[in-house]
Amino acid sequence: xxxxxxxxxxxxxKDTIQFFEENGILKVQTRLxxxxxxxxFTHPTVLxxxxxxxxxxxxxxxxxxxxxxxxxxxxxxxxFWIPKGRRVVKAILGQCIKCKxxxxxxxxxxxxxxxxxxxxxxxxxxxxxxxxxxxxxxRGGSKAWIVLFTCAVHLELVSSLSTESFMQALRRxxxxxxxxxxxxxxxxxNFVGAANALKSLDWDFIQAECxxxxxxxxxxxxxxxxxxxxxxxMVRSIKELLRKCLGKACLTYxxxxxxxxxxxxxxxxxPLTYSSDDPKELxxxxxxxxxxxxxxxxxxxxxxxxxxxxxxxVRYLHTLRSNLRKRFYNEYLGELVRSxxxxxKRKMISPGEIVIxxxxxxxxMNWPLAQVIELFPGKDGVExxxxxxxxxxxxxxxxxxxxxxxxxxxxHLIEDHQGTDIAAQNPGPTAAxxxxxxxxxxxxxxxxxxxxxxx
Length: 455
Prior knowledge:
Elements: H1 7-14, E1 19-22, E2 25-28, H2 39-42, E3 45-46, H3 51-63, H4 69-77, E4 80-81, H5 85-93, H6 97-103, H7 116-119, E5 127-137, E6 143-150, E7 154-158, H8 163-177, E8 182-185, H9 189-199, H10 203-210, E9 216-219, H11 229-246, H12 253-268, H13 288-291, H14 307-332, E10 353-357, E11 369-377, E12 383-390, E13 393-398, E14 402-408, E15 413-417, E16 420-424
Parallel strand pairs: 3-4, 5-8, 8-9
Antiparallel strand pairs: 1-2, 5-6, 6-7, 10-11, 10-14, 11-12, 12-13, 15-16
Helix pairs in contact: 4-5, 8-9, 11-12
Pfam families: DUF5641, Integrase_H2C2
GO biological process, one term: DNA integration
Organism: Araneus ventricosus (Orbweaver spider)
């Protein structure tokens, strides 16, 4: 090791450290020559930067049960002297795969802009997000679930999580609020089943005979609640209202329907803009303004109404609706700014990197390893979703569920896992530790992940 030490670096070290040779081995002259300590401690051997030094440091680190830089350096100092020891040991210990799996931080991409469907001028419920919440315990031991449609908020009550129950709730929603054009959901089995049922229809025949356009059903990426933030926030508001209203009460099915109607009216009546104390100021905008007609205070006698009055009334209502939408864009959308959160300093991942994928298992050592295949950019060009290759197949996950190890597939990985060194030199995810639990149905059949992605 010392023979391969560059002479220019050795000369620089001599300016700060006093060396001497003993039997052809370079050692350090310390101030402990009068000490009764062992010779290796009073005159430690110089260990320059070398691949063998990396193996020695990692071996010492693992024998000390991954205790840290200072403890490892102190143990090495009993026999060896490493120039710039703290910096060198810290850099080497940063390559420990086991520690990386336990301390790796997730990728935090920048906050995404609002999608076009959130800011387009369309009718209420024309573009809708749906989700389920529950279960709710009812009197008699039965259970029920809430189906939430937003924006604004429309609530339905169902007795199961089946596809049939959701289809019935969706039909009631369309009958009362009108049939929208776009529906956003997560990848729940009931949502996927309903989407497949609608897809099986002959939409060419339906459009030709009934002039009905096909429903555009969009799914969020798997394991990614951030893409459904606009309905997840409404679910939270509904849950908070129910906790405060119900307490320990146990209602019947009809009573729960009535309570949900009250909660729906309360949520739709929440102010979206600033509420002023000045009585002369305009009332704050609420979702109810967009789903209910604005009723005037005037009353008319039916025998006095003529065509001129009707035309004036129609023009008046049209003016009110126009002013309402102008206020919504000026007072509400104009106040939506990006979060001041500082972007993560961690470098973004790239195809070919080895990462660990967050799972429901609380033990991070059991999280599967994966290789990044492809990154999907959003409409603003920022990558927020990745396709990964595991031993069980390919999956799609948001970057918030991915923890980079800052390793490429071509790196030589040496991992101390339960006392066994695992060498992973194959760029493909064929190592034994690349595992993921295969999700199965109630009858034991493996579930095929939904390969739908809309950015």
